[in-house]
Structure formats: C-alpha cells, structure tokens
Amino acid sequence: MKVITVTGARPNMMKVSPLIDEMRRHKGLNPILLHTGQHYDEKMSKVFFDDLSLPEPDIYLGVGSGSHAEQAARVMVKFEKVLLSERPDMVLVVGDVNSTMACAITAAKLHIPLAHVEAGLRSFDRRMPEEVNRIITDSVSDYLFTTSEDANVNLKREGISDDKIFFVGNVMIDTLLRHLRGAEMSDIIHRLNVKEREYALLTVHRPSNVDGKDSLGEILDALLYIQNKIKVIFPLHPRTLKMIKEHGFLSFMRDMKNLITVDPLGYLEFLRLMNYARFVLTDSGGIQEETTILKIPCLTLRENTERPVTVTEGTNVIVGNCKDRIIKEVENILNNGGKTGRIPQLWDGKAAERIVDIIVRKATDGHG
Ligand code: UD1
To answer: In a 10 Å sphere around its CB, with 0-12 CB exposed, 13-18 middle and 19+ buried, how is residue 58 labelled?
Structure first.
C-alpha cells in the first residue's frame, strides 16, 4: 500500500515524523514523504528534518512563498502530476497550512483516499487562513483522525459521518515525548545566558497580530513592560521580522535591555527552552498543546483557540493582543505561579501507532 504523506510548513514536520516512523515499521506499507516547499529556509525546514531524523523527502515540489491563491495553486498543479505518475493508494495530510488544503483538494478530485491527521479543530473564526484550510480539508477527507473529543463533535455537527472519524490522540505529543531527552542535550539555555525558570519565551507570527501596526505595537508595548520584570527570549519568524522593520519598531525593540531576540530555532532547542521557561507567550497552535504537556503556563495572544482542551484541561489562558490584559495575566503568573492543568486524554505518545493500525486494518478489510 503506497501512502504519500505531505509536509509543507514548519508545524507539519513534527506531525509527519512519528507517522513516517510508524509506517516504515509495517511491511505492507510503502510510505513516500513529499515536501511541498512552502517553507524552504534552512531554519524553517531543514533543521527540523535533522532534529527529528526525518528521511530526506522522496519528492520535493519547491513551491515557495506567494499569496494564498498562488501558493495553493502551485501546490495543486505540481501535486496533481505527482499523483498521476505515482498512483498512491492513499494521501495523508496533517494540520492546517496551505499545503494541507491544496494537497487534500487535489487528492479528492482524483478519487484517492484521503486521511487528515488533526481533523476537526475549529476556532470558528474564518478570517484565520488556517480555519478555512481546516474546514475544506475535513470536508473532502475519508479518514479524519482527531486529537480531542471536541473535534469529533465539530465534525459531526458539519455532517461528517461517524464511521470516518477516529479519536486517536495527538501525533505532535508523540514527537515531543520522544525528543524530551534529546532536547536536554541542547546548550541553548547556556548560550543565551539565561537561567532555568528565570525567563519567558515569546513567539508571534500570525498575520492578525503582526501585519497591522496597531496590533503589533500593542504586543510590543506589553513586551516592553514584561521584559522589565523577567528576561524574554523572542525567536523571530521571517514574517514577524519583516513587519517589525516595515512598521519601524526595530529601534524601539533594541532599547529593551532584557529582550533576547534570536533567529527561528530548531525543534530540540525550542523544546528545551519551553521546558524550562517560567511561562510562554504565543499565537502558535502547536505551542499551546506542547506547553500543556510540559505543564508550563501558556498565554495565547489570540481571541480564540481551535484547541479548547488546552484551556479546559491544560495550562493555556487566552489573553488576546491587548497590552493591559496580557500584562495582567503575566503578573498573575509571576505572583501566583499560573495554571498547572492535567494531560488530555490519549496524549500519550501512541497516536501514530493508532493511526497506522487503523489505516492498515481498513486497507486489509478492503475499505481503503
Ligand atoms: C504558515 C502557516 C501557519 C503556520 C506557520 C508556521 C498557512 C496559511 N500558514 O504561516 O499556519 O503557523 O506557517 O510558521 O499555511 N518565509 C521565509 N522563509 C520560509 C518561509 C516563509 O522567509 O522558509 C516568509 C516569506 O516572506 C513568506 C512569509 O514568510 O511570504 C510567510 O510564509 P507562509 O508560508 O506564507 O506563511 P507563514 O506565515 O509562515
């Protein structure tokens, strides 16, 4: 059974890694790894292949950056050619980036069975490009693998039949648990000259936060206050750096004495930093889940989350992007310690195993 697994952007890499490993263990499976090239920089892509010991992609589409329509269209045109020549038995996509959606549509139109890992997440905010990607991908998928029960509820509400939905847990957590020890070997804490629990970690890259001068300015105003209380490490996504320059905030940031800006970090370095942070501020999806497992307080710089289980059970608090609210919650953590939470159901390191078992079983039953 030939399965093409798609990766495209940074947050896909840690999701495909345990799936590829698990598929390689099954004799009857022939896993092919395809990289669309949505992320192409050394620090946004290659470092993850190295850190996660991912095999070189079998197929590289090299689509690069562009508007959403350009990027998705380039993926579709190139992926269709691959599907016509490779004729896989299944396409497996993960997450919610443009590459996920573009490959899903292409596979569905060629009637190739399609599996979506991390299905059913909904922020109910369609201005978020990822929300559109999630809805489209789920609507054309044949196997919908979910990370939490709320995702099952979302899918059923959208009319997706029960027999397509499988609650399997979280592949991102498989990867995290597997690499915790490796992360301990990183000397990043020493290199950045910080001490365990005496720094905060910040990531922000969503268009809704960084593209507009007001929202970015508000977050940087909060940062000015926070770094007076505790050192802050801020790895800069390429989009964020570009917008900081465009909006003229570079010198404002240079004056922040306790702020440490760095290039985007590799998986192991970032995991080490998260695990020893006092708290994390982020607008990423995956980091909300990772901090929940690590029991590190997380403040999410958004108005909503497609991962509500990280709030109801984990360490996450939704704070939006207004300075006063952010500062209030930071003070709360500094004075009272922040949320500790509990581990969500099936986030146990075995999600990829469950997914591959289901795929193999269905294929053997002839439903694939
Ligand atoms: C994408 C995903 C987002 C994910 C994020 C993680 C979509 C819609 N968004 O957003 O869900 O959280 O990845 O990083 O798919 N760039 C580089 N080098 C690269 C890649 C991008 O410099 O290797 C720059 C380019 O200027 C590009 C911009 O970053 O235009 C944005 O890249 P893009 O892939 O369009 O979206 P992200 O903001 O990275």
So the answer is: middle
Q: Is 94 helix (H, G, I), strand (E, B) or coil?
A: strand
Q: Does residue 35 have an active-site annotation?
A: no
User: What is the DSSP track for 113-166?
Assistant: -EEEETTT---S-TTSHHHHHHHHHHHH-SEEEESSHHHHHHHHHTT--GGGEE
Task: Specify whether domain 181-336 bears CATH 3.40.50.2000.
Answer: yes
**Phi, psi dihedral angles at 128 (to 5 degrees):** -85, 120
Domains 2-170+347-364 and 181-336 share a fold: yes
- Condensed to tens digits (0 to 9), the pLDDT of residues 144-200 reads 999 999 999 999 999 999 999 999 999 999 999 999 999 999 999 999 999 999 999
Which pLDDT score, from 0 to 100, does residue 366 have? 64
- The pLDDT value given to residue 363: 77
Q: Whose CA is nearest to atom 15 of ligand 1?
A: 97
pLDDT at position 364: 80
Residue 9 Cα: closest atom of ligand 1: 13
Q: In CATH, what class is 2-170+347-364?
A: alpha beta
Catalytic residue chosen out of the listed positions 68, 205, 247, 367: 205
pLDDT lower than 50: segments of the chain: 368
Domain boundaries, the chain: 2-170+347-364, 181-336
Any atom of ligand 1 within 6 Å of the Cβ of 38 = yes
CB contact set of 306 (below 8 Å; sequence gap of 6+): 121, 122, 123, 130, 131, 134, 285
Binding site membership of 98 for ligand 1 (Cβ less than 6 Å): yes
Q: Which of 65, 126, 127, 134 gets mutated to test ligand 1 (max ligand atoms within 8 A of its CB)? A: 65
pTM > 0.90: yes or no: yes
Ligand 1 nearest atom to the CA of residue 284, by list position? 12
Query: What ligand 1 atom has the least distance to the C-alpha of 97?
Result: 15
Sheet containing strand 316-318, edge to edge, reads: 259-262, 231-235, 199-203, 279-282, 298-300, 316-318
Distance 159 CA to ligand 1 centre (A): 31
Identify the pLDDT of residue 362.
83
Distance, in Å, from the CA atom of 12 to the CA atom of 104, rounded to the nearest integer, reads: 14
